[in-house]
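Here is one chain, start to finish.
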Amino acid sequence: MHIKTNDTIVVLSGRDKGKQGKVMSADPKAGKVLVEGVNVAKRHKKPRKQGEPGGIITKETPIYANKVMRVCPKCDKPTRPAHSIKADGTKVRVCKKCSAEI
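Its structure:
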């Protein structure tokens, strides 16, 4: 999967198209990511114990990873990361548009 935790992404399609956010968690097996401020759902919570508050709670729900694209921190453009091998043999992610290390 091309998206990892703490990446800044932009949504490509759907109700939240164009929104940017930070990835809170990624689930490669399901192919989904959890992004803060994107795909927000509301739940009505009933108080279960005395003194516990109830009400409407908003929380983020997972979105498919193929609907989002990584944003390069240097050129601030959406890009799918390429991979490059450094001189010391480590593999790093690189922006395809400006060749900056991500």
